[in-house]
Design brief:
Two copies of one chain form a homodimer. Chain A is an alpha/beta fold. Chain A contains 13 helices and 13 strands. The first copy, chain A, is globular.
Chain lengths: 420, 420
């Protein structure tokens, strides 16, 4: 364990670690692990979708998907997402190619028009709760609109609910919470039933409080006994807060990243309001891509089957990363991590004040990681210790090289930090 | 000529026209001519695009179009639009499936953040000039954001430029103009070179004045000697106002309506700013659809060829409508219209105070037209006389029936109006 070493021992170790790092660096690798991107084999699983026979291009209702119309999306595609998210088709609307755009749109509407006909626009003092570590692109949207982000510590069962309840009850400017509740980005935690119930039922000072429930990984299991997530739409309904939650999902990491389709589930009242908003900004989304997805999957069971193939491809990569971390860092007490049961990331927590240095060392040695701090609002990790590892994209041999450089960088940065 | 008739003659005529109308009504037709939708034969022109061989799914730069990335779009698709709009590829960015969404986005950014880093958000007193008649969906976006719309009369050479120059020079809250400059919606007018030059060079009290140049029909010719439109991007540059114009185009009415791709051209500085905005709201647009379009068309010349096939299908429909109007209404002096040289619509101006009644009569008889007033901001046609006719979608026999009902309705509504 590095922390048990004397300054002299650490100093000597550092010299050794510097040499080790230089050896890795001299290999001149060039690897990008910065984003959660599917790998070639994963993408290839859906290739046949790209020349499906689309028949007469008509939806089951007889609507020509090649033409304008149906801003909601075609019924049969809505049904697949409705089954995925366990809601009625009247509680769901399809979007374009990215659920992130729907999140952005809803924040825009909230800021410009209010979250319903009767609500005022979110004011300049608006705050949103952000369980951390979290998804950097959520934070970017909120920051763009000048919405203050309040960090909420996240544990295995979800965000610190005592703090969440306290802040939402006390401050009417706390207007929402944004999170990835299942196989969270980056930790891979799934919110407990109690967490979901408390989020649905808690008293909020703001009447227009909203939960942004980015269920991006709801079918992205990496184990035989998948986590389960309580249905927040129905929990909110039961608790008398039917309009509280917006649930997002997409096929970006099921079929094609950027070439998928997305959906939003909420109360029928919210969906009606959203439908009106969307009808201002577009005539319709790409129904041909919806039809393609329907022909490819048939129904939600088709997606479930498809996800097993994804698991087969990426689970070994998660095992590889965790194995290397276990072997190269655990004996030295240099950080902790979680082998996730699903999702797309491994969240690595090193010693305090090492994350930025590790990312910089990796970059110098040719391995691009997600920026240190990215998993926190404003890019500020108070302990400078969290790094999001995205294992899916690189081939296994490259992943192995990248993780060896990562571990060498962690060892060196840790020795430096302990000496500082 | 109806206007030459005495009250008695008109009264007798009205009785005849009522019977005639009832005969049409009793046929129980059901036709929708409310939107400018391509017809089945037009859509079929691009069917083979839907199972193109996309090779290894890579862009010419080697980027896998199935994966995240390239928020700007792929270079080869950018080139097609750059050639279409006669700009450099650094002056252009691709969007999703609808240029309307890009217009909405830019208005949103203007209202929330300002049109550039140095500009303030458009204030609550913001006004935008709207040449009329115009496109209802433009007006819907502006109205949604509470932007005051000022009507500018449109003639064959474009908007009344004396009025445009006066208003923009006098009032710093006049922040923009929104228009369809080529084969205008609905009139089919193309702005003259002088109009384009004056718009580009005029003094504006607002430093953040912008031209929304919706070039939706730039390749949609319906004649052998197409109209030409001066390049506003380069005119603005020449006039020392490089950032003034946003130019929009899409393939919605080239390939698939709702299943196409769109683009925005502007100064490189504007495009840089827009790129930053877009990167907040999405990771990328659907590059597979961009690739599909590239494989299908090859280059801009491919689009030009393709549009000739569209013309072959729809020109007879425009001729049919104009022929019926000529035969059934011209002899009675009941309105005027323009056989357009391109675009998607025929703009019909009846006698004052007849448009709403005509649309209602048509609807009762089973023919749905674009709502009267839709071509004006707030849905208010001051003379209640303009009706947008969309001839492309119905088969010719149905179009003929619809236009007969339309003419019968115009005759009846005109007699009623003259008697009132």
């Amino acid at each position: 364990m590095y922390i048990d070493l004397s300054k002299e021992e650490l100093g000597a170790l550092k010299t050794v670690l510097e040499k080790e790092y230089e050896t890795f660096k001299s290999k001149g690798l060039k690897l990008d692990m910065s984003r959660g991107k599917p790998c070639n084999e994963q993408l290839a699983l859906s290739d046949s979708m790209l020349n499906m026979d689309l028949g007469d291009y008509k939806s089951e209702s007889g609507f020509d998907c090649r033409n304008y119309g149906l801003p909601d999306g075609i019924d049969e595609a809505k049904r697949i997402f409705a089954d995925m998210l366990d809601v009625g088709t009247d509680e769901l609307i399809l979007g374009g190619n990215a659920s992130l755009s729907l999140i952005y749109d809803i924040v825009t509407w909230a800021k410009c028009f209010g979250v319903s006909e009767k609500d005022e626009p979110w004011n300049a003092q608006t705050k949103v709760l952000c369980p951390v570590p979290g998804y950097d692109r959520h934070f970017t949207i909120l920051e763009k609109f000048g919405i203050e982000m309040l960090c909420i510590p996240l544990s295995r069962s979800g965000p610190d609910m005592n703090l969440v309840e306290k802040l939402t009850a006390e401050d009417e400017n706390v207007k929402g919470i944004i999170c990835v509740p299942m196989y969270s980005n980056p930790d891979g935690f799934t919110y407990s039933d109690e967490t979901v119930r408390r989020l649905s039922a808690m008293k909020t000072a703001a009447e227009d409080f909203r939960i942004f429930w980015d269920n991006a990984y709801c079918v992205h299991h990496l184990c035989d006994t998948p986590d389960t997530l309580l249905n927040i739409t129905s929990e909110c309904k039961k608790a008398g807060n039917p309009d509280r939650a917006y649930v997002f999902a997409s096929t970006s990491k099921i079929t094609f990243a950027g070439g998928g389709i997305c959906a939003l589930a909420s109360s029928a009242a919210n969906i009606n309001y959203i439908r009106k908003q969307i009808s201002v900004q577009t005539i319709c989304f790409d129904k041909l891509n919806q039809l393609r997805h329907v022909k490819f999957f048939g129904n939600f069971a088709g997606i479930t089957e498809h996800m097993k193939k994804h698991r087969k491809i990426i689970e070994p990569k998660f095992n590889l990363v965790c194995g290397i971390l276990e072997r190269e860092l655990a004996p030295h007490g240099l950080g902790d991590w979680n082998k996730p049961r699903g999702g797309y990331f491994i969240s690595f927590n090193g010693l305090n004040n090492t994350a930025k240095r590790v990312v910089a060392l990796c970059r110098e040695a040719g391995v691009v990681l997600t920026g240190a701090g990215a998993t926190f609002p404003y890019g500020k990790d108070p302990d400078d210790k969290n790094i999001r590892i995205a294992p899916t994209f690189p081939p296994e041999n490259e992943l192995k090289s990248a993780m060896e450089i990562f571990c060498a960088s962690v060892r060196l940065a840790s020795a430096e930090a302990l000496l500082a």
